[in-house]
Write the structure tokens for this entry.
Amino acid sequence: MLKPHFSRQIIPVAGDVTDKDLISDADRQQLESNVSVVIHLAGTVSFTEPLRYKAHVTSVTGHVQVIIAAMIVIFDVKFSV
């Protein structure tokens, strides 16, 4: 059951899921102490780019980037590449 005023707890984050640095440092700092759930809704709305490439980058690479960002923010996981 939804809590009253749950929408006040939603923090939208703008970013490009194809970018390695998905979220800014300012967003990361705000999210570190406030987030326990991540809902990923990114997708492409461009109908002029090749579908196979853009769909793969957004759907596969984008999901991986969001998972990595969530692990960094929520669990303070460190990655080295």
